[in-house]
Amino acid sequence: MLRNTFFAQNPAADSRTITFRDIEETVDAENNTQTVADTSELPLDLVRAGSKLIARAPIVGANIHDISVTVTTNQLTVHKNSWQEAGDEKEHFYVQECQWGSLSRTIDLPKSIDPDRTRASLHDGVLTIVMPLAATSHTKIIPVKDDAD
């Protein structure tokens, strides 16, 4: 992430000549902090295992009451809502990469799934969503009738 942040701020930078000093210079001089961009989107992995799709997302520090999972036959949405206690006013971040607020992610699924048989669980900070593939296709051929009849 830090590399992506550096290159976004320094488009002329060459990855073969990057030095730690170059990265340090991207740190905000006024606040002397470095934050990672795009942290409001929840990262996740999606794999196919036999006749099911499995999504895994790291959701550290949340409990099951902070998480909502919504599925349709072709889309998955995961939302995590949490908060962070206010820190000591004397604290000053040098690096702030952790996302403590709300995270959300919606992805289109590559295969149709059965929402009624989908299950989600949270174990050791990893949300796992098991989505069985739909047994039948929802495609239907509609016959065209002649209006003259």
Structure explained in plain terms:
The chain is mainly β and 149 residues long. It has two domains: 1-37, no CATH class; 39-132, Immunoglobulin-like. Helices cover 9% and strands 30% of the residues. The protein is built from two helices and nine strands. A four-stranded antiparallel beta sheet has the order 2-3-9-8, with no helix packed on it. Strands 4-5-7 form a three-stranded antiparallel beta sheet, with no helix packed on it. Strands 1-6 form a two-stranded parallel sheet. β2 and β3 form a beta hairpin. The termini are far apart. 9% of the residues are buried. Belongs to the small heat shock protein (HSP20) family. It holds the Pfam family HSP20. This is Heat shock protein Hsp20. Residues 35-147 form the SHSP domain.
List keywords for this structure.
single chain; 149 residues; mainly beta; Immunoglobulin-like; 2 helices; disordered N terminus
Q: CATH first level of the largest domain: which class? A: Mainly Beta
Tally of structural domains: 2
Which architecture of the largest domain does the CATH hierarchy give at level 2? Sandwich
- Rounded radius of gyration (Å): 22 Å
Poorly predicted ranges: 1-6, 33-39
Helix content: under 10%
**Strand order of the main beta sheet, please?**
2-3-9-8
Largest sheet: 4 strands, antiparallel
Tell me the number of helical segments per DSSP (H or I, 4 or more residues long).
2
